[in-house]
Amino acid sequence: MTTSLPIAPAILRRFAASIYEFALLFGIYFIVGGLVQVIFTLVGKTAPIWMLQITIFLAFGCYFTYSWTRAGQTLAQKTWHIQVTQADGRNHITYKQAWLRYIFSYLGVLPALLLLFTQMHGQTSAEGDNVMVIYIQVILFMTINCLALLGTSLMNPQRRAVHEVLSGSRTIHQPAA
């Protein structure tokens, strides 16, 4: 008897869960960013932007890896009935797989972050309307890149995105009970 792999979620379901996830990440961003600013203010220093960025990157990573290894899903994924499993679709992923999945998922936003970096540092004066145009470009570019990353699942026979293949994980649709 052959066992079939669990059903992968539709790309619109994945995208909807991603949008919800971004909304939840704002809370983590403000809590962690606020704590870093308070700590540096108490010692009379200004937090370097690179330190804040690394701290938030690690906080997001801890949120995702803990959620994926403990329950197999984040709050947004639970809402949209999506679960992250091993490639065979049976068990939760390991911490190593979770960190690899998290890091490789940045392939979708890396081009937009590079665009932001080059635009901000390429301007002699990035003020006012210039900054707004740059942010709008980056948001549009990031959305297109995230859709492209999710779209890689359409090219895989098992409907696994590139970050799932590289981390040995898969995303499955978990019908409501």
From TrEMBL:
GO terms for cellular component: plasma membrane. The keyword Nucleotide-binding does not apply. Its main location: membrane. Residues 9-164 form the RDD domain. Keywords: Cell membrane, Membrane, Transmembrane, Transmembrane helix. It is found in: Cell membrane. The chain crosses the membrane at residues 22-43, 49-68, 99-120, 132-150. InterPro entries: Pra-immunoreactive, RDD. It comes from the Bacteria. This is RDD domain-containing protein. It comes from Ephemeroptericola cinctiostellae. The lineage of its organism: Bacteria, Pseudomonadati, Pseudomonadota, Betaproteobacteria, Burkholderiales.
